[in-house]
Amino acid sequence: MSRKLLIPFAAVIAAVMSSVADANAQAVSLQEQLAAQYKLAKMGSDSSGWSVVEEGTLLTIQKGGIKGSPYKNTVTHTSTYQEGIIHSPDPTNNSTAQKVSKIFCGLHKCPTTPDPVNDETATKLFKIGDKVYPTKIAVDITKDTVTMGIVACDMCNQTDPPMYNKANVVFQFHSGWLAKASAGDVEDTIGQLLSISNDQQSQQDQQGGQDQQIAAQAAPAAAAQQAEPQEIKLGMTTSEVEHALGKPEKTFSSGAKQIYFYKDMKVTFQDGKVADVQ
Length: 278
What we know:
Elements: H1 2-37, E1 42-46, E2 49-54, E3 59-61, E4 67-68, E5 78-82, E6 85-87, H2 95-107, E7 124-125, E8 131-140, E9 145-152, H3 154-157, E10 166-172, H4 183-193, E11 194-196, H5 198-227, H6 238-245, E12 250-254, E13 257-261, E14 266-270, E15 273-277
Parallel strand pairs: 5-10
Antiparallel strand pairs: 1-2, 3-8, 3-11, 4-7, 5-6, 8-9, 9-10, 12-13, 13-14, 14-15
């Protein structure tokens, strides 16, 4: 009796494990494809504070409402994008930020007026047209979510002083949809909120045009340099002559005497050194 009960139970366990393995494989594959599409920016800090040390794929915000905070803050706000609507964190629920602030103020003397850079409760709503970089991408098939971390491109947005506001955006899909979705389908949804910026393509085209212009300007100089006549001096070795004029069209040797014939020149060597040029 107990044996009959164990067989279906084992089958259920095997089915569950297989389903989990398939979900993990799909998540890894989708993660890799999205990572190939969205290059992540890298942040770094020094005595002057945080900054973008390696740019990523430049994105343009298409809908306002994503709540951010300065990169220096320990608090990172998370907004959810579902069915075309942004759901920002409750503005009245700052319990986490308040706890962090209380701990900080318990260890240090807090200013009477909060510093907008260091204030853990400081927030910023990204607006339409703001430029940001992705900083992370995480796929969770079991929850049907794709989470993208973003940081502001302050140079693009002309933010002064630089704040590098950050945020997390959770793209929430219908139950079971993500397991069957292609990377292109996911990118289409992400693009509704965070589209790849045309400015990046323009910058790449501009850089390509500048490289071509530099190459075009350098070409005449290189050609002129190459066209300059090479001076052959008495006493030069055969290797030095070949370096200046190239390989001869034909050669003639007689004992210690050797002659190189070029199109418009004849170079005579004696004991391996130039003795005459005609």
